Amino acid sequence: MTVSKGNIAAAEEQLSEKTLEAETVFSGKVFDVEVRKIELADGRPARREIVLHNGGATICALDSENNIFMVRQFRSPFGKILMELPAGKLEKGEDPKACAIRELKEETGMTAEKIQDLGFMYSTPGYCSEKIYMYLATGLSFGDGNPDDGEFLQVIKIPLREAVDKIMQGEISDGKTVAAILKAARMVGI
Asked: How does pLDDT run across 101-121, given as a tens digit for each residue?
């Protein structure tokens, strides 16, 4: 069904679900899992399994020569090393910008004079509540990083244009990293 601007409210009623009951079936360090009994828009019952996550923040650090700084780290679900922008999960009630600034310092040792908001993205909206906030850092100063205990990283510098090429070739495939790099590239005219 095609929806015109004037009919959005009516169309939302045809799509919305109503939660009737929710039960937390797993509580972990990084996320919880909730099973919801819902009523579909047509009145039929259904069930949803939802990963509840506090969200996260990522930051694209861009130097004066249009290089960005990424981290390489092993990711267990895929059994391989991925290239990603510095990022971390939000603590309950934490400001996303403060989280991004903290992660930039911890993972790369960098601080920035200017932090610009790049918006946010829903990482996997079909079953997960994670919302990732994205930022662009400029006016960089370099220092020593201090990764979390058990976090092993390699910091790499790469031209922003090359990072965009690597995204298009499938060599950079982490969702938050892809979105933030492409937004940053657009902001600086690449």
From this structure: 999 999 999 999 999 999 999
The answer to whether 59 and 34 have CB atoms below 8 angstroms apart is: no
- Between CA 143 and CA 108 the distance in angstroms is 8
Q: Which of 61, 34, 30 is nearest to 47 (CA)?
A: 34
Pair 111, 141: CB distance under 8 Å = yes
Q: Taking the domains of the chain in order of start, what are their residue ranges? A: 9-52, 56-187
Q: In the structure, how many helices (H) and strands (E) does the chain have?
A: 4, 10
Query: What is the pTM assigned to this prediction?
Result: 0.90
Q: Pick 56-187's CATH classification: 2.60.40.10, 1.10.486.10, 3.90.79.10, 3.20.20.210.
A: 3.90.79.10
What's the residue count for the chain? 190
Query: Terminus-to-terminus CA distance in the chain, angstroms?
Result: 36
27-44, pLDDT tens digit by residue?
999 999 999 999 999 999
Closest by alpha carbon to 132, among 83, 93, 99? 99
Contact, 49 vs 33, CB < 8 A? Answer: yes
Q: CB–CB of 89/53 below 8 Å?
A: yes
